[in-house]
Amino acid sequence: MIDLGIAADFKAKIPGVTVARITAAVEVAEHDEALWREIEAAAARFRGMAMDDARRLPPIKALRDAYRALGNDPTRYRGSNEALARRISQGKELYRVNTVVDVNNLISLETLHSAGTFDLEHVRPPITFRVGLPGESYAGIGRGRINIAGLPVFADQQGPFGSTTSDSERAMVRLETTRMMMVIISFQGRQGLDEAVERAVGLLQTYARASGVESAVME
What we know:
single chain, Phenylalanyl-tRNA Synthetase, Chain B, domain 3, 4-stranded antiparallel beta sheet
């Protein structure tokens, strides 16, 4: 069982913050066409949607409100859930990464929550979900060095490795990954997270041969 908790000062500022965690052994593949058809079906709701409408969707609005409460401009630091919807609404194709990351993005599209997936070989628990400290940064996936001060971040013994905006290169899932952790982050409390976990586990078992699955919800 991976030790993951929410920092008390973060919870005090954002009472609704809740994290679902799933860990499993997986077999990562480059692509699965059936999975991609599921992603395209989930993405269809955002094709042609105005972003003003997307930002009013409760999970996206809740993350934007949380960013404001933490002193961030949500138009500068978009949540990963909003960034996915925005990319689709602009008529751009989603990135095809690998089957585990693609499952992560499908869960985000279906639940509208921010989600992240990490290679456990590059994570050193215990893990705390907290607010990024002044001066903290890391190499974001495909984004170079990013400033994570004031953002919701996952940090282990080596420091931050993921956030609701962009995850780090250090803990990214690759084809060689054999043990992973997925997090689904709600800023509206626990409602719907148990169902999201069940859906994510099913997808991981179908498309990444997930085994030894463990899950929990932290409030």
